[in-house]
């Protein structure tokens, strides 16, 4: 299963917010055997988001979009996904009720903040999703997510994104598996071994240097026997140390 990740937000491109969502999603997807083949960050630009989603939905098995959902002025992701599929934005009654309940709970828990800042919520703006999408109610926050065909849309707040991904995690998978080795050897001293293992086995090998003196080798493939044999072959040619 090939998956593309699209993160949305001017604040990510400006460096004001670290793109931890993409890293977390890539790890979870890889753990489930899926292959992450694209990661892209775009600004809060409806036309650009719509264009990217439209191209990717045909190119990949699944597309995950995170960020830009909600009811504020720069939240354009729901509009963009609707545009990509030529759908209208609609408000599902279940979603509206969930948003109202979440707002009420926040008001009850934070009466002084609500009173001091005269907090008002445009419920329909927060509840609107592309017509025909599968609703993902948010257990951690105000904004719902959704699934439309093979596009999965999550809020950008990390705790909310993670909670919504877990609701659909079983829908992602694949045959790719990985084994990780750790070594104190410098990367330059392993060139022959890394070239040799790629030539002999149907695997990919990633080499990730570390400033802490324990470099990481990641062996991946779709054949468990090939991965195991490649790992054993490497163990005979490089110094391997336990994971700390």
Mean pLDDT: 91
Strand order of the largest sheet: 2-1-3-8-7-6
Percent in strands: 15-25%
CATH superfamily of the largest domain: MoaB/Mog-like domain
Structural class: alpha/beta
What is the subunit arrangement here? single chain
Helix fraction by DSSP (H/I, runs of at least 4): 40-55%
Largest sheet: 6 strands, mixed
Rg from Cα: 22 Å
How many individual helices? 10
List keywords for this structure.
alpha/beta; 6-stranded mixed β-sheet; 41% helix; Molybdenum Cofactor Biosythetic Enzyme, Chain A; 3-stranded antiparallel β-sheet; 23% strand
Describe the structure.
- By secondary structure, this protein is α/β, with parallel strands linked by helices.
- The chain has two domains: 2-171, MoaB/Mog-like domain (Molybdenum Cofactor Biosythetic Enzyme, Chain A, 3-Layer(aba) Sandwich); 177-235, EIF_2_alpha (Alpha-Beta Plaits).
- It is built from ten helices and eleven strands.
- The chain has helices at 10-13, 20-31, 46-59, 77-84, 93-109, 111-117, 123-127, 158-168, 191-200, 224-235; strands at 2-8, 35-42, 62-66, 89-91, 128-130, 134-136, 145-148, 151-154, 177-183, 204-208, 215-221.
- It has a six-stranded mixed β-sheet, with helices on both faces. The protein has a three-stranded antiparallel β-sheet with strand order 9-11-10.
- α2 packs parallel to α8 and α3 packs across α4 (77-84).
- The model has no long low-confidence stretch (mean pLDDT 91).
């Amino acid at each position: 299963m090939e998956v593309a990740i699209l993160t949305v937000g001017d604040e990510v491109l400006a460096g004001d917010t670290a793109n931890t969502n993409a890293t977390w999603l890539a790890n979870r997807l890889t753990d489930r055997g899926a292959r992450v083949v694209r990661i892209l960050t775009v600004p809060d630009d409806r036309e650009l988001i719509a264009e990217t989603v439209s191209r990717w939905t045909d190119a990949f098995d699944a597309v995950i979009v995170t960020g830009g959902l909600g009811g504020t002025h720069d939240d354009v992701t729901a509009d963009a996904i609707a545009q990509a599929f030529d759908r209208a934005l609609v408000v599902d009654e279940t979603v509206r009720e969930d948003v109202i309940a979440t707002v009420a709970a926040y008001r009850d828990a934070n009466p002084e903040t609500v009173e001091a800042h005269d907090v008002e919520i445009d419920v329909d703006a927060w509840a609107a999703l592309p017509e025909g999408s599968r609703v993902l109610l948010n257990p951690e926050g105000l904004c719902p997510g959704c699934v439309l065909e093979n596009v999965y849309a999550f809020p950008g707040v990390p705790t909310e994104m993670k909670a919504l991904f877990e609701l659909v995690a079983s829908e992602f998978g694949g045959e790719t598996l990985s084994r990780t080795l750790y070594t104190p050897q410098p990367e330059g001293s392993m060139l022959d071994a890394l070239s040799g293992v790629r030539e002999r086995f149907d695997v990919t090998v990633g080499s990730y240097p570390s400033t802490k003196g324990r470099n990481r080798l990641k062996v991946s493939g779709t054949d468990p026997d090939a991965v195991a044999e490649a790992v054993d072959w490497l163990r005979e040619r490089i110094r391997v140390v336990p994971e700390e």
